[in-house]
Design goal:
Strand content: 15-25%
Bound molecules: ligand CA2
CATH superfamily: Dehydroquinase, class II
CATH architecture: 3-Layer(aba) Sandwich
Helix content: 25-40%
Number of helices: 5
Strand order of the largest sheet: 2-1-3-4-5
Distance between the termini: 14 Å
CATH class: Alpha Beta
Structural class: alpha/beta
Shape: globular
Number of strands: 5
Oligomer: single chain
Radius of gyration: 14 Å
Order of helices and strands: EHHEHEHEEH
Length: 146
């Protein structure tokens, strides 16, 4: 079974800029953490990042038939992207929304997620651990026949 982890704009800067907000852990280190847990659970993970909205949309479209579920930190596109919402909705692929920070405790413009209503669940506020919770969440969706 394969899971697709998608990361949106600027998440490639994690651990390198603004550690006060997003911490010191890099995206590469988060991937190592996710891959380790996934291997223990016998699941394959493809872990990707893009700054391009269109590329993220294309990856969601292509996930159909190849991945059992998607775990997505859409970054700032979370709050703006009808295109990502439509892609998740159109493909019907079970999707878990994740965030490092608690978006509901931050600026008001981060409180609304364009994709939340078409995702199966939302995890936020646990720092890098949100990714492991996203992995668990996606697996629980698959085990309960989605
Ligand atoms: O908390 C999250 O995971 C976010 O998805 C992160 C996004 C933000 O726009 C969302 O509201 C919440 C920002 C990702 C940018 O990451 C940076 C990392 C280092 C330096 C600058 C940005």
């Amino acid at each position: 079974m394969k899971l697709l982890f998608l990361n949106g704009p600027n998440l490639n800067l994690l651990g390198k800029r603004e550690p006060g907000i997003y911490g010191k852990t890099t995206l590469a280190q988060i991937e190592v953490m996710v891959q380790k847990r996934a291997a223990e659970l016998g699941v394959a993970v493809d872990f990707r990042q893009s700054n391009s909205e269109g590329e993220l949309v294309t990856w969601i479209q292509q996930a159909v038939g190849e991945f059992a579920a998607v775990v997505i930190n859409a970054g700032a596109y979370t709050h703006t992207s009808i295109a990502l919402r439509d892609a998740i909705s159109a493909t019907g692929i079970p999707t878990v929304e994740i965030h490092l920070s608690n978006i509901h405790a931050r600026e008001e413009f981060r409180h609304h997620s364009m994709i939340a209503a078409v995702c199966r669940g939302q995890i936020c506020g646990f720092g890098p651990h949100s990714y492991l919770l996203g992995l668990d969440g996606a697996l629980s969706l698959i085990k309960t026949a989605i």
